[in-house]
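Database export, one record per block. Field names are fixed; values are copied verbatim from the stored entry.
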Amino acid sequence: MPLIFDPQRLPVLAVDDHLPAVPIDRLSPPALRERFAKPRVWSPELIAERALGKRAPAHASVLVPLLDRDGGLTVLLTQRADHLSDHPGQISFPGGRAEPHDLSPVETALREAEEEIGLAAHHVEVLGCLPTYTTVTSFIVTPVVGIVQPDFSLRLDPSEVSGVFEVPLDFLMAPAHHRRHAVGEGDEAREFFSMPWSSQHPDGAPRTRFIWGATAAMLRNLYRFLSA
């Protein structure tokens, strides 16, 4: 679905720098394994967006890949291809629609990750799932969180993905980097988060990846899960 507004041009209404970051000792692979094995009581902050159009709801899954790097865990994100009909050009997790032969949301996420970016399922240690999140395009998305060992290789499908990049998990789990926006007015107003990540092009020029919408919402729920 093409965008009807440019989210990067909307004003920042607030930054959640009053909230504490997830302590760094909770962001190691052993700590994450323990948290998913013995989750605390918590509630997702964001569960659904107002649907645009009359598409029938469909189930989907995404993989939230946590790459086990020497400097700490990073989150692997994709840039969706510009020609896609749903969310073209946006930052997302690898994933997609569930197929009838998928036995579970986890199987959907792993299959889609392998199809989109060539990440083989045997490289992924699945930790667990976060609550579903329903997008404006009526996809009921299950986020599947997994740790990826560093000996993987990728093979991008250009029909789905134009590129991939990594963001440190501790950056995304610090609400000082969570910005609030809104589009529309009155009863039609829609609020959303953004988490812009500044990096560099290979030629050294600055570049900002604008993480927002459903991807930012699911990361915000991960923050709530880990900070509980």
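Remark 1: The chain has one domain: 15-227.
Remark 2: Residues 77 and 201 are 16 Å apart (CA to CA).
End of record.
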